[in-house]
Write a structure and sequence with these properties.
about 375 residues; alpha+beta; Immunoglobulin-like; 3 domains; eight-stranded mixed sheet; five-stranded antiparallel sheet
Length: about 375
Amino acid sequence: MAGRPQAGPAEISGNGAILAVEREGEGWRVAFVSEPRTSPQPLWFHVQVGGLEGAPVGFVWELADITLGSREELHLARPVLRADGGPWVRAEAVEVVKLPDGRQQVHFAHAGGADAVAAALCYPYAPAHLDATLAELHGAWQRAAIGITGAGRTLAVMAADTWRWQQSADADEHSRAGWEALWTTLIGWLIAPRAERQVVIDLGRDSFEAGEPVRALVYVRDADYRPVAGARVELTIDGPSPGTHGAAPTAASGEYSASFIAGDPGRYRVGVAAHLPDGGEIGGERRFDVTPPIGELTDRPRPEVLEAIAQATGGRCLPIERAAEMAELLPLAPVVEERTVELRPARTPAFFLVLLVIAGADWLLRRRWGVG
């Protein structure tokens, strides 16, 4: 039986007081509660469990109903889970348990297969939840649009104490860097052009060499921009070397992957058709360029370059089909080389040193014994 796992708040943006870590069947049960920190009510949790050694783990979020949000919509909560530092994946379902005293628990689980699992959630989850939250508070909190840009985005701020990260007595270089990163990211998102599309194609870059492998990641979202699992995704390549490829789902929800080889040089268009589980179909496209291979950095041989190297170095260039003939071209006959070396010990420093030691010892012994 494995040792007891270690559970606690995550190192970055961690929040969660661990109440219990107990055995539950073949796995573990971790109970925790969100902490309010500097806010009147808890806003989020981010806990992690290590040392699971592949065992399943069930999370019990205690006092979930005191977190800022709607008590009646806890069953809509979908915490995100990350196994062994991989991608975040939403929990498939949660179970809300109402205790006799009226308190509510939220149960969710990870099926196992990982040594470390992190769980996180931030409330509210969507604009509808924010509206419900504000209605519950009866004017105690106000929503203010602090920026409206040409991109059409708005930012609602529900906290008023981020200044502490910069100016409080406990502020340090880490908190100041966190404050700057937070507001730089938020403002950058506000002013960035809108690019929300239900189908997004990521090729990594816009140019490839002929013969180079290309990996395409396709992200499929529904009308509410939520990841769509179970879609049938096809890629159509239009250009000098056309083709059709299927995309397979990855471990991340709503993400699909396809690979192909860049064809002849030219301008290409890759179109994506995503057939959704509900029968709908959505699509997207992306363009890229294919250039001739540069230098020798290609996975295809260039006979003219190899022949030129062979001629310049006095060798021969053979195709791979004639590789067996290379053994006959190798100079396998033994080469005998004779050298004459003349040794004269009397002319070496070592010989002179030996003579000096013998003469010195003879002189010392004669003096000691009085021999003339």
